[in-house]
Amino acid sequence: MIQMKQAHQRQEAHQTDLLISLCLFWTKARRIFDGPDNRRFLTFNNAAARDDDYFLAGRMIAVSIVHGGPGPRFLSEMLYDHLTGRTDINGTVEDITDETMKAALLEISSAASLNELHMLIDKYASLLQTAGCFDYPRSVEGKDNIVKDFIQWYILYRNQYSIQRFRDGLSTLDVIHALEQHPSVFRPYMCYSVEKLKPESLEAVFKAQLSEDGSTRRQEETRILGYWRDYLLDTGEQETGVFLQDILMFATGLDSLPPSTILPQPRLSFEWTSKFPIASTCANTIKLPISKNYEEFKNAMDFGIQNSPGFGLH
Fold first, then answer.
1. How far apart are CA 219 and CA 210, in angstroms?
2. In terms of C-beta density within 10 A (0-12 exposed, 13-18 middle, 19 or more buried), how is residue 164 classed?
3. pLDDT tier at 25 (50, 70, 90 boundaries)?
4. Cα 100 to Cα 47, 104, 105, 264, 295, distances in angstroms
5. Rounded alpha-carbon distances, angstroms, from residue 97 to 26, 33, 36
6. What is the DSSP-derived secondary structure letter of residue 41?
7. Per-residue pLDDT at 47
């Protein structure tokens, strides 16, 4: 009875992780964010403010992190540094999504002389005054401070209400204080990282459920398990039709490994009736097909995963 209750609790926890993952994915494309896909920042929207979407997004992220789920992994470094209390913050002109403003900053940053710089400041006086960075530097190098100040205004200062409500949401379960105290630890879960999922790390996540030692089935399963390892290596080297993230998503509904362990423990079992893999995201299980050779196995895995976008076949 206790084991059944524990299994039910694990399943409920995993379903919560799946729901949070979907919500984070949905949040990324919401009206509350702007900027490049891999470094999003908050932007003010009246409707979102009325619905308190900024607070809800922060709370959603906080709850996910506390329960060992995934972080957003799409916040801009500049926004994250601001949230965690850093004062020396820099952005890039490429973060500016308004094409008119971006063009103005590119012109200013390209000024070759002090006279040209002053002419450009006059040309874009209204824009610079709005951002509070209208000034006539005494040297051409002063253009860098103008550009830096404008980017800070565009991303941070004009969106202070949005950022504050988002921060209030992150205060749920005291997560914001954890971010402030350990910014480098949480950065990979909040901001985009080029670090990719590796075959060995994905292999370590799954535990194989094998038949009795010495049985005919055990021999077949061991052979297929070898194919599985080769498939992960080939996928990591992009020699298959999918990515390692696709395999993880197929089995668990998660596109990246969370900070803590995945519950329930992801498992590998074996499918004796279908020639294609079957996955259950509720149980974190992949059933591997019993194929005649590795090429057949790889093709079956590619087809099964590619034709079940988002989640595995149930």
1. 9
2. middle
3. low
4. 25, 6, 9, 50, 53
5. 20, 11, 8
6. E
7. 95
